[in-house]
Structures are given as structure tokens and as C-alpha cells.
From TrEMBL:
GO biological process: cell division
Transmembrane annotation, as ranges: 161-181, 214-240, 260-278
InterPro entries: FtsX (IPR004513)
Name recorded for this polypeptide: Cell division protein FtsX
Chaperone found in the keyword field: no
Record flagged with keyword Membrane: yes
Organism: Henriciella algicola
Domain of life assignment: Bacteria
One Gene Ontology cellular component annotation held by this UniProt entry: cell division site
Length: 290
């Protein structure tokens, strides 16, 4: 005679289906927030490194020929890879965010700017450029873009704190939901728990039943959330690759090995969080009210 044992938490339960959806949604948001934060941080780091390796020299009281001479002088300095005078088309593209798609209005004088690609310490190089221009009798000033880079790095620190806070908030929300569901399931099966106690079952045995059940639920919900985050990320990556106007400061979602590692670890982290929440909740409930 085969005896079929019914679990404390049945496989098909409407409340469990709702719980699965909530945990999966929270895992999806946590994973997506982590990927977007990492992508934004990577993009900003790359942009900052590029900006810190570039300089702009503004020359005045001269014509384009004088600016070309200044660029030749700058390019001969140690630490300078390339220096060239920006054309009117390049200036128009550079200033288009301020003047709109119509370009720079006629009659506005354009500055003479020299774009410099540098290596090493740009602060010391800027002083060398200023000194060389002054010695040659050219009125010019080098800008290292350090103020812009500092602002970006400050924003990166804020972004890191916000991303960590968002992930922690979503994690604590998921743990709270699991704890509430565990306590509700335990109260709904109080008679069965009492029978198990009369049969000699210890609290650890009952707690393990709930731990295993919510471990599996957290693992499945975490996997569903990670798959959904993977799909959304893949759409974003495909859209960015097909776009004709990419932005350097948009999140660089590339689905590299670190992104895939985040997606793989998230279900396990969700399952562990669910198991710990179930263990603590069952233990406290059995000691206090049951």
C-alpha cells in the first residue's frame, strides 16, 4: 500500500502564485537596476577617461593661419599626440546642442579652438602649452576639462550609492514579503503543526519544511526575474546598436561576462534570501504563538 504524503504547502496555491509574481517582479527590478547602474557607471568612466585625455586651447587676437601655427607648436611639445584646429563644421556640430538643429546663426563670430589629444598629466601639460604660446607671442589658454571630469566623478559616486540603496530596498522588500507569506502559511496550517508537535516533531524539522518550500519558490522566482531582465537588457542593447545617434553617457549594456554573472547569481541570492526569511519567521512564530 503506497501512502502519498501531502506537503504543508501544496504545489498549486493561488496565494503562492501571487507571491511568486511579486518576488519575480522584485528580482527583475533589482537585477535591472544593477545592470543599468553598472552600464551607466561604465559609460561615465569611459567618457571621463576620454575627457581627461583631451584638451582644448582657445586662441584669440589671431587668424586661422596663426591658429594653425599654434597647433603645430603645441603638437611638437612632449606629451601631445595630436593637435588640430577645429573647422567651422566641427564647431557647428560641437555647439549644435546649444543652438539647435538650425546651427549657429549667421553673424556670430566663431572662436578659434585647437583640439589636443594628450597623454599623461594634462594639468602640467596645460601649463607647458600656456608657456609655449606666451613665448611665441600667441594669446591662448589651455583647458584640461578637469572641472567636467570632476563633476562626472561626483555624479558616479552618487549613482553608486543610489544603485546600492535601490538594490537593498528591493531585497528587503522581497524578504518582508516572504516573511509575511511564511507567517500566513504557518497560521493557516496551525492544526497540522500541532499534530506534528504531538508526534514528536521538533521546531527545526517544521522550519526545514518551510525553508525548502520557499527556497524553491525564491529560486524559481529569481530565475524568472533574471530571464525577464535578460530579455529587456537584450532589447536595450539591440536598440543601442541599431541607433544612429548613440550617446556616450547612456548606459553601456553589453551583456558581457560580468552582466551574465549578475544574471546567474541573482536567482541563488533570491533563494537564499527567501530561505533565511522563512527560517527566521517560522522560528519566531513557533516560539511565540504556536
Amino acid at each position: 500500500m503506497n501512502i502519498k504524503m501531502n506537503p504543508l504547502l501544496p504545489e498549486s496555491d493561488a496565494r503562492e502564485a501571487a507571491l511568486f509574481f511579486v518576488v519575480a517582479a522584485l528580482c527583475f527590478l533589482a537585477v535591472l537596476a544593477t545592470l543599468v547602474a553598472r552600464g551607466t557607471y561604465t559609460a561615465a568612466e569611459a567618457w571621463t577617461a576620454q575627457v581627461e585625455g583631451e584638451m582644448t586651447v582657445l586662441v584669440s587676437d589671431t587668424d586661422r593661419r596663426g591658429a594653425e601655427s599654434a597647433a603645430t607648436l603645441i603638437e611638437a611639445l612632449p606629451g601631445v599626440e595630436r593637435a588640430h584646429v577645429l573647422t567651422d563644421e566641427e564647431l557647428d556640430e560641437l555647439l549644435s546642442p546649444s543652438f539647435g538643429p538650425g546651427g549657429i546663426p549667421d553673424g556670430i563670430p566663431l572662436p578659434l579652438l585647437i583640439a589636443v589629444d594628450a597623454e599623461g598629466d594634462t594639468t602640467a601639460l596645460a601649463a607647458d602649452i600656456d608657456a609655449a604660446l606666451a613665448e611665441a607671442g600667441i594669446n591662448g589658454r589651455a583647458d584640461t576639462h578637469s572641472a567636467y571630469a570632476a563633476e562626472v566623478r561626483k555624479a558616479l559616486g552618487t549613482l553608486r550609492i543610489a544603485a546600492i540603496g535601490t538594490v537593498l530596498l528591493l531585497t528587503m522588500t522581497a524578504i518582508s514579503v516572504i516573511a509575511f507569506a511564511t507567517h500566513a502559511a504557518l497560521l493557516a496550517r496551525k492544526d497540522i503543526v500541532d499534530v506534528l508537535h504531538l508526534a514528536g516533531a521538533e521546531d527545526r524539522f517544521i522550519a526545514r519544511l518551510f525553508e525548502r518550500r520557499f527556497w524553491l519558490l525564491g529560486l524559481k522566482a529569481g530565475a524568472a526575474g533574471s530571464v525577464a531582465a535578460l530579455a529587456v537588457t537584450a532589447i536595450i542593447v539591440f536598440s543601442a546598436q541599431s541607433s544612429n545617434a548613440p550617446s556616450e553617457l547612456l548606459p553601456k549594456l553589453s551583456l558581457d561576462q560580468w552582466d551574465l554573472m549578475i544574471l546567474a547569481v541573482s536567482p541563488i541570492a533570491g533563494a537564499l534570501a527567501a530561505r533565511i526569511a522563512a527560517r527566521i519567521t517560522v522560528g519566531r512564530s513557533l516560539r511565540s504563538s504556536l
